[in-house]
UniProtKB/TrEMBL annotation:
Protein species of origin: Alteribacter keqinensis
EC class (word): lyase
Full protein name: 4-hydroxy-2-oxovalerate aldolase
Catalytic residues, chain numbering: 18 (proton acceptor)
Domain of life, per lineage: Bacteria
Catalytic activity: (S)-4-hydroxy-2-oxopentanoate = acetaldehyde + pyruvate; (S)-4-hydroxy-2-oxohexanoate = propanal + pyruvate
Length: 339
């Protein structure tokens, strides 16, 4: 792979799986991956939205086995490398091995920001398989900067090539991104990355803040096809970085056409900042909770805002999706008692 100033990982075929209710088909994945490869995007992440092994009642069943999707994407890529996400506890080392056999070349091992220690075995396994390895510290707003540094250092000590600050809730403000990335840059030798969500319309500003503070790996989703209001919109990021004379190696025209002609037509609805996604960012709630909370709001006849504000107050984290229904049921009971 040619040297670039910034390495973009396109996450629509994984983070976007949340927005697609995990209903990606082989045909959709093939067409999108082929376009991304043509555009020379360095990394394309493919998996269930909650990572390998995520297809379940709790997280949402996939329409198509993720290994089939990974194989399909890998089969049309000659330049882009396929990445997979794995959350220890949801995915196992067996699934990682199967993903590698299906063509994945990068493993992104994701943990809650204070739980990097659970990534050790998976980082080791990924390295043993010869994969590029990323530590992905989710819900990064929930830990003070010093704690984030400690956790990132653990991932570095396990052998990760890159560690990411992940703004899962799309709640960080640019100065908070700057201080986090700066602190990591000062304490680590490995690459630093940033993954944003656009719930407060700050994903682009935060990505630029991250880059200016020393991040060289940035995530984006084409047409913002990610959880919540989506991620930093990849084709827009390519345009902005190009105007800043930052070399991403990605072809802007190919990305624009892919976004317009292939991705936009498959969106269940346009990726806008609506009430639910705005509250995710405002209350600091996991972006992947949006669809689950929308369903709960409908079922219990509640305002989604009330559910998400309560989940934010309770500092609910990934893996606690069952709390969404608990919170909705309690709110519904309280509402009934008032009538
Ligand atoms: C549930 C996994 C999650 O979607 C990973 C991620 O992209 C994030 O935390 O933002
Ligand atoms: Mn995400």
């Amino acid at each position: 792979m040619n040297k670039r100033d910034v390495y973009i990982t396109e996450v629509a075929l994984r983070d976007g799986s949340h927005a697609m209710a995990h209903q990606y088909t082989v045909d959709q994945v093939t067409r999108i991956a082929r376009g991304l490869d043509e555009a020379n995007v360095p990394y394309i992440e493919v998996a269930h939205g909650d990572g390998l092994g995520g297809s379940s009642l709790q997280y949402g069943r996939s329409a198509t086995d993720e290994l089939e999707l990974i194989r399909a994407a890998a089969s049309v890529c000659s330049r882009s490398k396929i990445a997979v996400l794995l959350l220890p506890g949801i995915g196992t080392v067996h699934e990682l091995k199967a993903a590698e056999e299906a063509g994945a070349k990068m493993a992104r091992i994701a943990t809650h920001v204070t739980e990097a220690d659970v990534s050790k075995q998976h980082v080791h396994m990924a390295r043993d398989l010869g994969m590029e390895t990323v530590g992905f510290l989710m819900m990064a707003h929930m830990a003070p900067v010093e704690e984030l540094v400690t956790q990132a250092r653990l991932m570095e000590s396990y052998g990760a090539d890159t560690v990411y600050v992940v703004d899962s809730a799309g709640t960080l403000l640019p100065h908070q991104v700057t201080e986090r990335i700066k602190a990591l840059r000062q304490s680590l030798r490995i690459n630093i990355g940033f993954h944003g969500h656009n719930n407060l319309s700050l994903a682009m500003a935060n990505s630029l803040a991250a880059m200016e503070a020393g991040a060289t790996y940035l995530d984006g989703s084409i047409r913002s096809l990610g959880a919540g209001a989506g991620n930093t919109q990849t084709e827009v990021m390519v345009a902005v970085l190009d105007k800043m004379d930052i070399n991403t190696g990605v072809d802007l025209s190919t990305m624009m056409d892919l976004a317009q002609d292939i991705v936009a037509p498959i969106l269940p609805k346009p990726q806008e900042i609506e009430k639910g996604s705005l509250i995710l960012g405002y209350a600091g709630v996991y972006s992947s909770f949006l669809l689950h909370s929308e369903r709960a709001a409908q079922k219990y006849n509640l305002d989604i805002r009330d559910i998400l504000v309560e989940l934010g107050r309770q500092k609910v984290v990934g893996g606690q999706e069952d709390m969404i229904v608990d919170v909705a049921q309690n709110l519904a009971k309280k509402k009934e008692a008032l009538i």
